Amino acid sequence: MKNYAKELDKIIEERKKDGENERKTLLLHSCCAPCSSYVMEYLREYFDITVFYYNPNITEDAEYRRRVEEQKRLIKVYNRQVETGMFENMHSTFKARKIGVIEGDYEPECFYHMAKGLERCPEGGERCLRCYELRLCKTAQVAAQRSFDYFTTTLTISPMKNAEKLNEIGDRMGKEYEVSFLPSDFKKRDGYKRSIELSGQFELYRQNYCGCIYSKVERSG
Ligand code: SF4
To answer: What is the per-residue DSSP string for 83-112?
Structure first.
């Protein structure tokens, strides 16, 4: 398997060389606030980030609302760090910028349509690969429509997710929509551990199942 964390390092080194005047924009698909906590902390020095919350896989309405509100709350907390100058005290390479947010349509019917016939697949199987694709395809479309320089997803931070497949799908979607996909394996270098620390620090809601009703049933045994 390719070392996607190293591929991202190379791009970040280019960003550092280009400096403050050549900042690039990044549309960051986020699955939830806890997973995005580390990714935003890590990347916001090098990119102007807009979070794209598009998760039709969260099949229960109340759960969807809870997760999206938590995402918006965390972005506000991070942006307050920028407003108060706290970010500059923690990081000095680049000037801090605020993080934007786009909430995509909530369309669980698209997920159910995609999952037809795959309801019994275990987590990590074919249904999940198509679920990654559903979300990355929309992210690439929006990134292209709005002329972002890059797009990527927080999903590679999860030890439960297949980083290789996520990167393959992201790369393919990037080629299809002609926008650069930022490779990643955010769980590396203690990224996952840091996301748990940040979740504790900001008292984030951490769900105990992935998102769809099938994963909820699977987790509840
Ligand atoms: S378990 Fe998670 S990744 Fe897999 S289909 Fe359900 S919501 Fe999508």
So the answer is: HTTHHHHH--SS---PPEEEE----HHHHH
Atom of ligand 1 nearest to the CA of 123: 1
The pLDDT assigned to 88 comes to 65
Atom of ligand 1 nearest to the CA of 161: 3
Residue 17: pLDDT band (50, 70, 90) is confident
Domains of the chain listed by start with CATH number: 4-15+24-216 (3.40.50.620)
Give the residue, out of 132, 214, 220, with the most ligand 1 atoms within 8 A of its beta carbon, to mutate for a pocket test. Answer: 214
Could you report the per-residue pLDDT of 59-108, keeping only the tens digit for each? 999 999 999 999 999 999 999 999 988 776 565 567 778 999 999 999 99
Nearest CA to ligand 1 atom 5: 128
How far away, in angstroms, is 186 Cα from ligand 1 center? 18
CA distances (Å), 60 to each of 55, 74, 112, in order? 11, 22, 12
pTM here is 0.96
Measure the CA–CA gap between 153 and 27, rounded to whole angstroms.
8
